[in-house]
Amino acid sequence: MSKYNQAIAAIKGALSFGIDPTLRTISALVKCLGNPQQNYQCIQIAGTNGKTSTSRFTAAFLRSHGAKVALYTSPNLIEYPERMEIDGQVVSNEDFATAILAAKDCADVAIKDGNFEHVTEFELITAAALWLYAERHVEFAVLEVGMGGSWDATSVVTPKVAVITGINLDHTHVLGDTVEAIAREKAAIIKAESIGVLGEGTKNVRETFFEQAKKVGAPEPIIAEQHAMLDELDISRFPSYQRHNIICALIATEKALGRALDLTSIQDALRDIQIPGRFELINKDPKVLIDAAHNPESAQTLATSLKERYGIDKDSGYIEGFDTLLLGVLEDKDAKGIIPALIPLFKNIAVTQSSSPRAIDANDLAHIVKKLDKESRTPQVFGSVKSAVETFLENGNAVVATGSITLAGEVKAIYGKANNDKFVQGC
Fold first, then answer.
1. Order of all β-strands in the sheet with 288-291
2. Cα–Cα distance, 339 to 133 (Å, whole number)
3. Buried b vs exposed e over 165-185: b needs ≥16 C-beta within 10 Å?
4. What is the pLDDT at residue 173?
5. What pLDDT sits at residue 422?
6. Which of 3, 79, 127, 292 has the most CB within a 10 Å radius?
7. Rounded to whole angstroms, how far apart are CA atoms 218 and 220?
8. Which domains does the chain have, with CATH numbers?
9. Could you tell me the pLDDT band of residue 426, with boundaries at 50, 70 and 90?
């Protein structure tokens, strides 16, 4: 078995352990690895929505100012190594495998010594990433929080800048069923001497973050509602919702570098950046767009962005240029909140289930859609993403595929193979 396959086997072996709401295991792993996270400055980014985009903008802005930067995001769209980037490039399979196996060696020793019983997938990958970034001598690591904040594995670091993009109801079975409870979980990434940056979506619970900063002795958080540079930048290629994420990233970058930003460098970064899986056009003719919207807020944002970018046909009332919506939602998500924002915009509705064990059965999802559709349409049901895409390719459908990150990733992978991996990248 190749080293890469060994690494993938180790990750898949850890999947069964789910989520472990403690920092004890990740702390032991990084200690065994020599506390690599202490060798560079960290920017940690949490939030119900927008954290992936904000992380990517921040990493790009830091790179544009000459810094050597690592980026850690999750989950991946297609392959695990996508979660780790250094200087804007996904790490090689070789480097990824070396890092995973280094973390696994530490885990095996700790388990044998009785320090803990198991390591989760996210703990293993996070420890590996932190180690690899130190090995490659990065100056900054931009870390997207996986879930919450207080016990997320990325919270083993002490961030120089702690960004919270926004708070809404998601992962309520783990984080709490009120925005106040979720805010308290995410506020924990603000530690002593961390500079907190609060995005537009935190406005209803900002007091929680100010209280956290005061409690740990951190500076008063910065409210990221505007940045003087924004009016001078051309951000027209991005959906309007990215404006808020760009503001957060500008402030985070400024505070991480400790100096004013260069306008030309930022504009160059914005021209080149791609946000995989977020309003991403992966096929031009016919159009195929994927979006990782997986909760009611992000679904509504996607609907607004589609209207802004493509417009509404005045005769049909549907989005111009697309004929089909493909939905695939996970069981722990609010399908009944996601569906109404999107189905009125499309002539044809199709449902499927991704390969995730958490995916809602396609027939069950179809029942929910029909119940919520004011036109009482019966959605086309596909038992797999592959069968859906094959049908769309044969019929030449123009598709928006959304509802989960796993669905977006599977659609992208299949269209990539069909088109010899030549994508039209969107943002």
1. 280-283, 288-291, 399-402, 324-327, 348-351, 380-381
2. 40
3. bbbbbbbeeebbeebeebbbb
4. 55
5. 41
6. 127
7. 6
8. 3-272 (3.40.1190.10), 280-418 (3.90.190.20)
9. very low
And the tokens for 248?
Answer: 């957060």
| pTM for the model | 0.92
Retrieve residue 101's tokens: 């196996």
Angstrom distance (rounded) from CA 30 to CA 155: 12
Cis peptide bond upstream of 357, omega within 30: no
Asked if residue 242 lies in contact with residue 251, where contact means CB atoms within 8 angstroms, the answer is no
Of 200, 134, 215, nearest in space to 168 by CA? 200
Query: For residue 46, what are its two tokens?
Result: 């949490």
Q: 251-296 pLDDT, tens per residue?
A: 999 999 999 999 999 999 999 998 999 999 999 999 999 999 989 9
8 Å CB contact between 236 and 203:
no
Burial class from Cβ neighbours inside 10 Å (0-12, 13-18, 19+) for residue 88 reads middle
Would you give the DSSP letter of residue 375? Answer: T
Residues in the chain: 427
* Nearest Cα to Cα of residue 369 among 332, 404, 336, 329: 336
Q: DSSP H helical segments within 136-261, as ranges?
A: 172-175, 179-187, 206-216, 242-257
- Lowest mean per-residue pLDDT among 10-24, 183-197, 273-287: 10-24
* Secondary-structure percent of the chain, ordered helix, strand, coil, rounded to 5: 50, 15, 40
